[in-house]
Amino acid sequence: MDTFEYYRPGTLAEALRLLQGSGGEARSLAGGQSLMPLLKDGILTPQVLVNLAGVPELRQIHWEERVGLSIGAMVTQREIETSPLVRERYPALAEAVSRVASVPVRNLGTLGGNLCHGGPGADPPAILIALGATVRIAGFSGGRTLAVEDLIAGPYETVLAEGEVLTAIQVPPMAPGARAVYLKHSVRAIDPAIVGVAALVAWQDRLVWETRIGIVGAASRPMRARSPEDELRGWPLDDAAICRAAEAAAGEADPLSDGYASAGYRRKMVAVFVRRALEQIRGAK
Amino acid sequence: MKYPISLTVNGEAMEFSVEPNLALLDLLRDHVELTGCRRGCDSGYCGACTVLLDGKAVHSCSVPAVAAHGKDVLTVEALVRDSRLHPVQEAFIEHGAIQCGYCTPGMILSSVALLGENPDPSEAEVRSYLSGNLCRCTGYVRIVQAVLAAGEAMRGKI
Fold this sequence. Notes:
The complex is a heterodimer.
Chain A: E1 5-7, H1 12-20, E2 26-29, H2 35-40, E3 48-51, E4 61-64, E5 68-72, H3 77-82, H4 84-89, H5 91-98, H6 103-108, H7 111-117, H8 124-130, E6 134-139, E7 142-147, E8 152-154, E9 157-158, E10 165-171, E11 179-185, E12 195-204, E13 207-216, E14 223-224, H9 226-232, H10 239-252, H11 263-284
Parallel strand pairs in A: 1-3, 2-3
Antiparallel strand pairs in A: 4-5, 5-10, 6-7, 6-10, 8-9, 11-12, 12-13, 13-14
Chain B: E1 3-9, E2 12-18, H1 24-31, E3 50-53, E4 56-59, E5 72-74, H2 87-94, H3 104-117, H4 123-129, H5 141-154
Parallel strand pairs in B: 1-5
Antiparallel strand pairs in B: 1-2, 3-4, 3-5
Helix pairs in contact in B: 2-5, 3-5
């Protein structure tokens, strides 16, 4: 591994200045759990590493009744899964985050780092898509907000421009009576998901009113599966609707093959896990 | 370029000057000669390199030493006090939870962290918590038994 310059700025403004000023040769360091192996293997060879651990505003997590939950990009995954606030308000988010790799990885690995790494089969994007979450991005010359499904462009790729930093993840409040679940399909607990399905359903009377389905492993990037949502909206969540949604999700899927599973197997598992997720939501109602 | 860092290692304040690409694992093994943390996969999966950083189990192969500046590191070497093994170490021996021993320091430190957070874990909680520590010999049954027994011992039930 080549060596590089190292900085640990104390403010976001300073971090942005350092990242901007190094001509595309800078990387930000979050928890290091994905970055360190890539540096060691020489896959990434930055000239400058900017550790964001010293920026206090990136480490905060807070809830406001009308706005929802805001999670600073540098909050660790372990902090999220053990947060009483998250467990009470968004149990499916706590569950999904608790399925990332292992405790030692989650003790240092951050939610922002997980999203910006863009690893295929990472669990958090699926549930964040289902919850309708957005990410706040800061740049040297201004900020922007993106839906989580628009952040990751492909395996290990995001739409972040040079010098931009993901600062926070915003999760809107769930509608009254809404339910969300995350189901992960993997061989070993510490593996990335072969397929990970998150679903959210809210009802108006007995009919599905609002629904979002986020899937990882169904395409080259985390996917918001809109065709199963269309199958469900306005219908009761009965066996027929669930079956249509599961088939629609498999039809919309365009999975990759890798060492964990073939594309064909993934497509079948998309249908199975969308069905199970919706059945679990129905059962919990 | 080297950067000055200070660490507390097993209770002792230490100063180092490190290249920013040096992993905490390499610092501990090559510069402090604490070889209880093992190099396994070297990529954050196997847990052989587990140490406690500010009391939390981490994979030291995936921590830049420079980012550990100001923190407190505990390795397996520090668990022994007055020539007495830690209850988790005793339980591993008693239950035959060790075969080749390569994963054992990491396994023990993760177990110590678990029992610190949750003094009375269920078997499922033990298995889940230790999923970041791979053992290629034992099949985990005796390891899980040892951790549950250590929990009992530490709660003063034995």
